Structure to design on (548 residues):
């Protein structure tokens, strides 16, 4: 059974701290190995949704041998229902930049990039100002590190790390095969650390307050806090920092409108949890002992009983069909057929049992699609169709 | 055509002429012209020494790099789930009614184009839209009319 906690609010990320210069210079004086160990012991996992241990990623990049390495901050926040990264870059950009700088020091990279989605272009001017202030200070303390902004141009798939690198290299944003992983061969074929905006902001907290402070929050396998982007049928939509590991029931008690029928955890590529499972579902990364535990990049969308789950699924599938890069057949054709399929069932052109064929198709996509996009269509599709089958048919 | 060559040259001088500079060059052209015409694509390919088809293939991958002639103001209304739930259709109807254009169309005076787009990242303040790079949130039909009136006056 999962280790459940009541909702615990926290305030690290958006806390007003004006000491980034001190934290940066203080941290750069420390031994790299010591810093890596500190980060590993915090058990911070990537906050973009995939949950790869950040300390290990930095360690791998630091061990890679190359004449040039890179640090990339992934600000291509495109998952439906996620909007926390924009807020971080608006309110506390120096925490992210400091995290990038420390990462550069540890991994041996002197060049950093922020891949900013085209939809957030209005952030660019302020961010550039922050970067020049940051670079000025780096020069002052003789630390060789520069950051450039690379603008995206409206493609969800570029949030996938290797697609993002293809895009930066001037190509269509089509994901690469892995391995090789970016820590060995990333941007321009060089070892690259690529982290989500929020992950980098958390490293600031860890290097400032120590790993223990972070580790003591949350639950086993899911340490620390996380920003949640709350939207949909809720009286208080917005961004909230909470300790990981809370039960979905506690979440709904806090954010629901009293009539919550289901919650989509992790955006369109995540899972839909129906009311009857709120009590047995917790929010965090998967681990051996945690029972049903759902990871999320922070997207939490609430639906009340007035919403048609068919419309929700229809909207997601249209999203995936448009955003699939089209490179691999399972995803390109799969997304099209799923969308056509549920419409055909709804209109009575196909029998209800056709839904089972579509479920099989998502299973195939899960195994055969090249990247996370095609693989994760199965998550929302199966969790919606299995829990709200009647709504798909009638 | 001469002036196209000129400003692409200038852009390339600023960004560089390697493959990794292609996206910034394309973005620069769209910023200025609101679209990538065939002739600009051919010229970019020439200056970056790339196959034209490759430049076209890359450009058409990205939804913000338009290859159709767009109006001066490109309106992109978010159609993803939360915005759809919070009245995106009313917003579209209001815009269509006011500007007399449908989705994917450009007004006859070449001032406005109307498009739908995927999640803009404003789900907590839905519905949302972009007009060029400017974002507008928590829209209502009244609010949209006010915003568009301002643009029409410009």
């Amino acid at each position: 059974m999962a280790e459940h906690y009541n909702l615990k609010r926290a305030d690290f990320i958006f806390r007003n701290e004006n000491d980034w210069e001190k934290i940066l210079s203080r941290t750069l004086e420390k031994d790299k190995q010591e810093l890596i160990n500190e980060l590993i012991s915090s058990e911070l996992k990537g906050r973009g949704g995939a949950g790869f241990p950040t300390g290990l990623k930095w360690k791998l990049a630091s061990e890679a041998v190359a004449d040039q390495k890179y640090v990339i901050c992934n600000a291509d926040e495109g998952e439906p229902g996620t909007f926390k990264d924009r807020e971080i870059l608006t309110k506390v950009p120096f925490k992210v930049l400091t995290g990038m700088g420390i990462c550069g020091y540890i991994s041996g990279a002197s060049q950093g990039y922020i891949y900013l989605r085209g939809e957030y272009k209005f952030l660019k001017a302020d961010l550039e100002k922050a970067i020049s202030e940051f670079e000025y200070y780096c020069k002052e303390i003789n630390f060789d590190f520069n950051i450039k902004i690379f603008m995206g141009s409206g493609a969800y798939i570029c949030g996938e790390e290797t697609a993002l690198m293809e895009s930066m290299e001037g190509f269509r944003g089509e994901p690469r095969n892995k391995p090789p992983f970016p820590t060995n061969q990333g941007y321009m074929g060089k070892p690259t650390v690529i982290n989500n905006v929020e992950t980098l902001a958390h490293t600031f907290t860890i290097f400032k307050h120590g790993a223990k402070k972070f580790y003591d929050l949350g639950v086993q396998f899911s340490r620390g806090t996380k920003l949640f982007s709350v939207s949909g049928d809720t009286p208080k939509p917005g961004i909230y920092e909470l300790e990981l590991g809370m039960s979905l029931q506690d979440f709904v008690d806090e954010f629901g409108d009293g009539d919550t029928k289901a919650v989509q955890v992790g955006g369109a590529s995540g899972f839909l949890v129906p009311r009857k499972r709120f009590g047995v579902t917790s929010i965090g990364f998967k681990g051996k002992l945690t029972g049903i535990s759902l990871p999320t990049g922070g997207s939490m969308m609430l639906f009340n009983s007035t919403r048609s789950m068919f419309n929700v699924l229809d909207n997601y599938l249209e999203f995936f069909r448009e955003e699939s890069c089209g490179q691999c057949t399972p995803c390109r054709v799969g997304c099209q057929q799923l969308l056509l399929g549920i419409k055909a069932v709804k209109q009575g052109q196909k029998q209800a049992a056709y839904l089972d064929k579509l479920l099989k198709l998502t299973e195939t996509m899960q195994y055969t699609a090249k990247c996370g996009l095609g693989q994760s269509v199965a998550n929302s599709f199966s969790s919606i169709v299995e829990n709200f089958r009647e709504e798909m048919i009638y | 055509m001469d002036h196209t060559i000129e400003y692409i040259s200038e852009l390339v001088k600023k960004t560089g002429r390697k493959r990794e500079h292609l996206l910034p060059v394309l973005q620069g052209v769209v910023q200025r012209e609101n679209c990538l015409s065939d002739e600009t694509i051919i010229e970019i390919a020439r200056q970056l020494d790339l196959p034209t088809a490759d430049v076209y293939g890359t450009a058409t991958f990205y939804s913000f790099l338009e290859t159709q002639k767009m109006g001066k103001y490109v309106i992109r209304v978010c159609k993803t789930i939360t915005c759809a739930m919070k009245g995106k259709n009313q917003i579209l109807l209001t815009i269509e009614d006011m500007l007399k254009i449908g989705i994917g169309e450009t007004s006859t005076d070449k001032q406005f184009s109307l498009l739908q787009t995927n999640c803009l990242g404003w789900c907590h303040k839905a519905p949302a839209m972009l007009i060029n790079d400017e974002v507008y949130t928590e829209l209502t039909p009244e609010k949209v009319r006010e915003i568009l009136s301002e643009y029409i006056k410009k």
Notes: The mean pLDDT of chain B is 95. Chain B has seven helices and four strands. The radius of gyration of chain B is 17 Å.
